[in-house]
Structure formats: C-alpha cells, structure tokens
Amino acid sequence: MPNPAKGHRIDLVFPEQTVTVRIDGTQVAKSSRPLALFETGLPVRYYLPPEDVDLTLFRPSVTHTTCPFKGEASYWSFGDRADVAWYYPEPIDSVAPIAGYVCFYDTVAELSVEGELPER
User: How many CB atoms lie under 10 A from the CB of residue 85?
Assistant: First the structure.
C-alpha cells in the first residue's frame, strides 16, 4: 500500500510581512508577526498569533478535524458564517510553532499581505 506521507512536506517561515484579515468588510486581524506555512499541494497559509486577532468577534465552533501532518484542529465562527478560521491547540511536534495561531479560509476572509516572502 502506498504511503500517503511520502513526499509530503511542511515548512514554517516567520516572514517580515504584515497580514491584514477582513471578513465582510470588518477588519478582524492584523499582524506583523505571521507564520507562513508551506504544505505540499496547498497554497501558503498564514497563521497569526491569537493576540493579533480580535477574538471577541468570533465564537468557538463545535467542529474539530484531524490532519495527519499537524494534529487536531479547532474552529472559530464569525457572525452567521461557520468555521471561518482554525487553530491547532496542541499540534504535533514537527509543527509546534503553530500552537494557538489562527488561520483563515481565503474563501471567506480577505487577506492582504504587505512584504515579500523569503526564498525557501
């Protein structure tokens, strides 16, 4: 049986960028301390420190999912939009820096990024 993890890779970078997140026109986060996560087959995802997200605008969701490469994710909802952001309270060791950091679905949230990603 083929190994689904073979060739799968995750790289974490703390870029010198500023990420602003808006949902339905409301600014919900702004961070100059993002963590960029590069994962095989997926677009770059920006994880933001929870201190840089206005969590008073969100409510915890009952949704939980499991990623074999990152661990169990919990979700946040915004207004009538369910599960617009996720975070890993206790990620697996290989991606430990993302613990508690919040990531937004780019299909719901508008992310604007200032600055360039470093070469990988």
Answer: 27
120 residues of the chain, pLDDT tens digit each? 344 567 899 999 999 999 999 999 999 999 999 999 999 999 999 999 999 999 999 999 999 999 999 999 999 999 999 999 999 999 999 999 999 999 999 999 999 999 988 766
End-to-end Cα spacing for the chain: 32
Of residues 72, 119, 65, the one with CA closest to residue 91:
72
Give the Cα separation of 100 and 108 in Å (integer). Answer: 20
Residue type, 111: L
Instruction: Walk across the sheet containing 26-31 and list its strands.
Output: 26-31, 18-23, 110-114
Q: Which of 91, 87, 111 shows the shortest CA–CA distance to 100? A: 87
